[in-house]
Amino acid sequence: MLFTLGILAAKNREETSGRIERDMAVSYLSRFAVLQGLSSRLGAARPDDAPQPRVFVMGSPGTGIRGNPEDLNAEGPYRAVPVYMNTVAANEALVLAGTDRLPGPAYFGLNPGLIKTDIRSNYLGEGSIAHRLAEALIGITGQSPQTYAKRILPLLFAPGLEGRTGVMFNNKAQPILPSRGFDKAHADRFMTASEALLRRALR
């Protein structure tokens, strides 16, 4: 299972119909919700000797962001960049704590770096001059989506990942360390907060 859907937080706070800050809902909590229902069922129909199912979470892990699990819904003073970084931290927590809290598959994190996509349109304004200039610059200085896909695709099926979990990879498919201070206890706080926020959204 490969999670890639994501946006950036808007300059002004936005909410979904479930009263969840929009970036958190789209870029993280939806993934958490899907895995709550599917993690124990992934690969259940395959032979016993089949490789363990794998979940790949694209969310820029290992960037040094610890985040704030006490404000997943961005209800404190709103600033777009810290709010977006909180979704980054939440996705890293999912990779690190997924095996314990949502058992079944192995979990891996993907940090693609800057790639020319529309992910920044929610923050910069779709089609705005700032958006067009940013994407043009990233297109010149960063790798293309096609190059990234060629590097990452073999990783998804690499035999060397069997028996491993909680490993994260950079934009060249090389393993990277978790963010400093992102220990199990901190990841667990994100998971507990995620469960509470999801219950609130589904009420």
Description:
With 203 residues, this protein is of the alpha/beta class. The chain is 43% helix and 8% strand. The protein has six helices and five strands, in the order βαβαβαααββα. It has helices at residues 22-38, 80-101, 121-124, 129-141, 145-156, 184-202, and strands at 2-3, 54-58, 106-110, 167-169, 175-176. The protein has a five-stranded mixed β-sheet with strand order 1-2-3-4-5, covered by helices on one side. Helix 2 links the parallel strand 2 and strand 3 (106-110). The two termini are 27 Å apart.
Q: Could you list the spans in which at least 5 consecutive residues all have pLDDT below 50?
A: none
Largest sheet: 5 strands, mixed
Give the overall shape: globular
Oligomeric composition of the shown chains: single chain
Distance N to C terminus = 27 Å
Give the percentage of residues in beta strands.
5-15%
Q: What's the helical proportion of residues? A: 40-55%
